[in-house]
Design goal:
Layout (H helix, E strand, L loop, with lengths): L7 H14 L13 E6 L2 E7 L8 H8 L8 E6 L11 H7 L4 E6 L8 H7 L3 E3 L5 H15 L4 E9 L17 H13 L2 E5 H7 L15 E5 L12 H9 L3 E3 L9 E3 L7 H7 L4 E4 L3 H9 L5 E7 L26 E9 L2 E8 L1
Parallel strand pairs: 3-4, 4-5, 6-11, 6-12, 7-8, 7-11, 8-9, 9-10
Antiparallel strand pairs: 1-2, 1-3, 12-14, 13-14
The structure holds NADP nicotinamide-adenine-dinucleotide phosphate.
NADP nicotinamide-adenine-dinucleotide phosphate (NAP) binds next to β6, β7, α7 and α10.
Length: 356
C-alpha cells in the first residue's frame, strides 16, 4: 500500500507516528526506533514512542498516555506490532485487550516480533499495512541492517560548502555549517551508539565526539580509525587520549602504539562491519575526514549519507573535498543514492539518501 492511497487523516497520523519514532535515542538498541499515535472519532487521543530497550514499546507507551477508552480506536505505528514475548509481552495482546478496531502500520517486522499483523487480522481487527514510506525506511534502516544482514549500519556524514569543501588548505574547518545544523548533527550523535573519525581528523581537530548543545541524549562510543598507526603520545594531546580512554574508545588499527585503547584490527575492511556488531554496535556515524569516507565507499562500506550543505563558497585548490579514497574510474560507476530527502536547517540544507 502506498502512503498516497491512505486518507488525508490516516496519512497525517502515520507520518506523525514515524516522526515520534525519532525521539528514541541509542538507548533503544538493539530494538528498533518506533513511534505510535492513537486516534478515535477523528481526534488524536494518544502519542508515544519506544524510549529504552526493555521498557514499553511505542504502542503501549501511546496507550499509557491516552486518556479515553481505546474501544474501536485506530493505532498508527511505524513498525508492525510485535507478537512475541521478548523483554516485554506481545503488543498484539494489549491492543486486543483494549478493543482497538484498526491498526495502520508502515513497515513489516523482519525480526522475532513478526506476525503481529496476521494475528490481529485473525482476531477481527482491520489492519492496513505495510505502507510504503521513505521516512519509515530511514527511521528503521539500522534495525533492518542488523536484523537482516547481521552487521552494523554505517551512516556516512559530512558538512560541506556549496563548492564541496569540508576544510581549508590551512586546516581551518570550524565551522562549515550553522548552529541549527550542528544541533541537528548532535541529536543524530545521540541516536547512534558509535561515532567514527579518521586519524587525520584527530590530528587536525582533536574532536570531542560527544553530544553537546544542551541535548540530553547519551554520548556514542568513539571509534578511531587509524589503520597506519599514525597517532601516538607525541602528536596527540594527552587530555584527548584520556577522554577517549574514559569513554572506552576503540581504535581500528593494524599497527601503532595506541594499544591502551581496545584495538580492533582493520584487515583492509574484511569483516569490519560484522565485527562492530559483535562488539555491541548497531548504528555507527562515520564523521570523516576525506580519507576515511573515501576508503569506506571504495570498499562498499556505507549504508546511507547525511550531508549538511552550507550556503557559502571557499574556493582554493588546496581546500579539502569530503570524499577521498580511490573513487570511481567512470561517471556511470559513481556511488548512487536513492530515497533522497532534502530538508532546510536554518540557512543550510540537510540532504539524506541511502546508497544503492
Ligand atoms: N566538514 C566535515 O564534515 C569534516 C569532518 C571530519 C573531518 N573534516 C576535516 O577533514 C580533514 C581530515 O581529513 P583527512 O582525509 O586528512 O583524514 P581522515 O580521513 O580523518 O584520516 C585519514 C587517515 O587514514 C589514512 N588512510 C587514508 N586512506 C587509507 C587507506 N586506504 N588505508 C589505510 N589508511 C588510509 C591516512 O593516512 P595517510 O595520511 O598516510 O594518507 C590518515 O592517517 C581535517 O581537516 C578535518 O577538519 C571535516
Amino acid at each position: 500500500m502506498k502512503l498516497e492511497n491512505l486518507s488525508e487523516f490516516d496519512r497525517r497520523c502515520l507520518e506523525e507516528a514515524i516522526q515520534l519514532g525519532w525521539k528514541g535515542d541509542s538507548r533503544v538498541h538493539p530494538n528498533p526506533r518506533v513511534g505510535a499515535v492513537i486516534a478515535k472519532e477523528g481526534e488524536v487521543i494518544g502519542r508515544g514512542w519506544h524510549r529504552v530497550r526493555g521498557e514499553a514499546h511505542a504502542e503501549i507507551d501511546a496507550i499509557n498516555q491516552s486518556q479515553s477508552s481505546l474501544d474501536g480506536a485506530t493505532v498508527y505505528v511505524s513498525l508492525e506490532p510485535c507478537d512475541h514475548h521478548g523483554r516485554t509481552p506481545p503488543c498484539t495482546e494489549r491492543l486486543l485487550k483494549e478493543g482497538v478496531g484498526r491498526v495502520v502500520f508502515a513497515m513489516a517486522d523482519p525480526g522475532p516480533g513478526q506476525g503481529g499483523a496476521q494475528r490481529l487480522r485473525e482476531e477481527g481487527v482491520e489492519v492496513i499495512g505495510p505502507v510504503d514510506s521513505p521516512s519509515a525506511k530511514r527511521l528503521l534502516a539500522p534495525f533492518l541492517t542488523h536484523t537482516t544482514k547481521n552487521r552494523v549500519h554505517l551512516t556516512m556524514k559530512w558538512a560541506m560548502t556549496l563548492d564541496g569543501r569540508i576544510a581549508l588548505g590551512s586546516g581551518d574547518s570550524r565551522w562549515v555549517t550553522s548552529q541549527e545544523s550542528r544541533v541537528h548533527a548532535h541529536r543524530v550523535r545521540s541516536q547512534v551508539d558509535g561515532i567514527m573519525v579518521g586519524a587525520g581528523t584527530v590530528l587536525a581537530d582533536h574532536p570531542s565526539l560527544n553530544v553537546r548543545h544542551e541535548l540530553d541524549g547519551p554520548d556514542p562510543r568513539p571509534i578511531i580509525w587509524d589503520p597506519k598507526g599514525r597517532l601516538n603520545s607525541k602528536n596527540v594531546e594527552e587530555t584527548w587520549w584520556q577522554s577517549m580512554l574514559e569513554r572506552e574508545a576503540i581504535i581500528v588499527s593494524d599497527q601503532g602504539e595506541s594499544s591502551f585503547l581496545e584495538v580492533l584490527p582493520w584487515n583492509d575492511g574484511e569483516g569490519f562491519s560484522e565485527a562492530l556488531l559483535e562488539r555491541g554496535f548497531h548504528h555507527v556515524l562515520v564523521e570523516g575526514g576525506a580519507g576515511l569516507l573515501g576508503t569506506f565507499l571504495d570498499l562498499g562500506l556505507g549504508d546511507d549519507a547525511l550531508v549538511y550543505l552550507a550556503p557559502k563558497v571557499c574556493g582554493g585548490k588546496d581546500s579539502l573535498s569530503p570524499v577521498g579514497g580511490v573513487g570511481v574510474s567512470k561517471m556511470d560507476l559513481a556511488y548512487g543514492l536513492k530515497e533522497m530527502e532534502v530538508m532546510p536547517l536554518g540557512p543550510d540544507l540537510l540532504i539524506q539518501g541511502s546508497f544503492e
